[in-house]
Specification:
Two copies of one chain form a homodimer. With about 325 residues, chain A is an alpha+beta fold. The first copy, chain A, contains seven helices and 15 strands. Chain A folds into two domains: about 150 residues, HIT-like (HIT family, subunit A), CATH 3.30.428.10; about 150 residues, HIT-like (HIT family, subunit A). In chain A, the strands form two sheets. In chain A, strands 3-4-7-9-8-13-14-12-11-10 form a ten-stranded antiparallel β-sheet, with helices on both faces. In chain A, strand 10 and strand 11 form a beta hairpin. In chain A, helix 1 crosses helix 5. The longest helix of chain A is centred in the middle third of the chain and has 18 residues. Chains A and B meet through strand 2, strand 8, strand 9, helix 2 and helix 3 of A and strand 2, strand 8, strand 9, helix 2 and helix 3 of B.
Chain lengths: ~325, ~325
């Protein structure tokens, strides 16, 4: 299986594969070859345990799980380090029965079902007392860390520790709230709608903007206009509106940027909060096309250089004709 | 020029190019083609201002500087955001007069001169009262964010803000010191030398280990055995010993992993500290080969999955015959 190990310096938990590790030589020349649809594991899967199925969206357990819910989460010392059993679960969300690669090409109704599924699975994982966070995210394309299978899917990981960026985000939002007694993200939404210079697209319930201090070119955030800290609860009733704006943004990427690889991740509040309706966090989605490799030293320093201003990428994306 | 902009959520400063931005269309199909040695800008450069030169190592100002020391660092509000002139300097360290691509192939004496140069430039930038941190780092290979020019070089950036990971690291080390009254990194060095399971290589003054909770496969840290928080001061007199171990590790990467792209960064203490000899930080170097693209969602969440245990990668690197 694998282990959760804590970096002793920055307190970051990392999942480290142990038993099912690839041999070192397998890293020397990693190859990813596209799968023939005839052999697509998501078109013809009969072996995987189906966890949930509705509207053509199928949730299955990962075939090479790196998390394992069968044993409890117990931290223990390992010399000066800290280690734990990799408690949790890792699920694949197969987004459509059809062999379609990019979520941008799915009908809005199908994307709606995908986001409904995320919300349902998040609520289900919340029942597990060990779970501190549920990550729902997508890797599209080889450059985004996906295998080239050509069948739209995303992933859900329920983990017993808080990811570092979520800690940083909630801490930052708390500081702002402590001082201003207003939600930082609500203020961002209001300011971006007023100024318009980083606005990519919007509908009644959601807004898509490029962030003021982006890490990556064309990085885009989708935020709900209505305040809610929690995705799984806050999205209920608005899934179709969210799906429409996600499709809108993904089509702008696909058409304007020549079908780039991308990642998105839902940035919801931690599972365990003093109050589920605390005002200092506001769920949102980060979407990042993977266009540059400039993230070399950035990975090591946390210091980013964005080679193009977000006002220019917002203008560019806004101009893309998605109805062509 | 460019701007420093602060992410309002996590307080991360980002350099955002403004004037010299590439057009959005330039990101659509980024191409990097190898440069003919006849046209190598580092073999035949006569235009760049030479900032420092010794033992065949030449420091020049970046030709497309993203930092500019001519105007002071002044933060100002931009709505709810914060922005500043991108004060600082950005230098290229051309490591050799020869057209050699990989530092692994330079003689130890030449690598020694490179590290001496880093230390000298760091001390020089310290004189600038706006400078909070000096980053010295290398991107080798296209996958590491470098252009394919084939001439060994590294970069030095003097910046008026603390990079986020440095903040996280110093904060973590402080916490450990507060409790244990010992340096965390000294304890790591002692434990790794005793256990040996993550030891890659060592010499009299330095040790190379894979970290207990790595983010990336084959990630390797080089730490001085002697405690010192500051690279520029602590390395003096030990540059040749450091150069020998750097070459040792880079050769293990080159031979064992088929000449992979890699990054390294010197993780020294912030320029401004209560005392330059405070005991709670300990400089070191992180080296990361860029073998996998799995860092897709990791970039967005700070949650990492390392697909191979560091004990296995240490064993693999240890076995590489670098004298063949």
């Amino acid at each position: 299986m694998s282990q959760l190990r804590k970096d002793p310096v920055v307190s970051r938990w990392v999942i480290v594969a142990t038993e099912r590790a690839r041999r070192p030589a397998a890293f020397v020349d990693p190859q990813s070859s596209a799968t023939d649809p005839k052999n697509c594991p998501y078109c013809h899967d009969t072996a995987s345990k189906v966890v949930h199925e509705s509207h053509g969206v199928r949730v299955i357990n990962s075939s090479g799980p790196i998390l394992d819910g069968s044993k409890p989460f117990e931290r223990r010392a390992h010399g000066l380090y800290e280690v734990a059993h990799s408690h949790g679960s890792h699920e694949i969300v197969v987004e459509t029965p059809q062999h379609v690669a990019n979520m941008a090409d799915l009908p809005v109704a199908q994307i709606t079902a995908v986001f409904q599924t995320y919300a349902l699975r998040m609520q289900a994982h919340r029942e597990n007392p060990f779970v501190e966070y549920v990550l729902a995210y997508k890797n599209y394309g080889v450059a985004a860390g996906s295998r080239a299978i050509g069948h739209a899917r995303s992933q859900i990981m329920a983990v017993p520790v808080l990811p570092m960026r979520i800690k940083d985000k909630t801490r930052g939002a708390e500081k702002y709230f402590d001082y201003h007694e207003r939600c930082l993200f609500c203020d961002i939404v209001a300011q971006e709608l007023k100024r318009g210079e980083r606005l990519v697209s919007q509908n009644e319930h959601f807004v898509a903007v490029t962030p003021f201090a982006p890490r990556f070119p064309f990085e885009t955030w989708i935020l709900p206009k209505e305040h809610h800290c929690d995705f799984a609860q806050g999205v209920v009733g608005f899934e179709d509106s969210l799906a429409a704006l996600i499709k809108d943004v993904l089509l702008r990427f696909k058409i304007g940027l020549n079908d780039p690889a991308y990642n998105y991740m839902i940035q919801t509040a931690p599972v365990k909060r003093p109050s589920a309706f605390k005002d200092d966090y506001h769920w949102h989605i980060e979407i990042m096309p993977r266009l540059t490799r400039v993230a070399g030293f950035e990975r090591g320093t946390g210091f980013y250089i964005c080679p193009i201003p977000p006002e220019m990428t917002a203008d560019f994306l806004k101009e893309v004709d998605i109805h062509a």
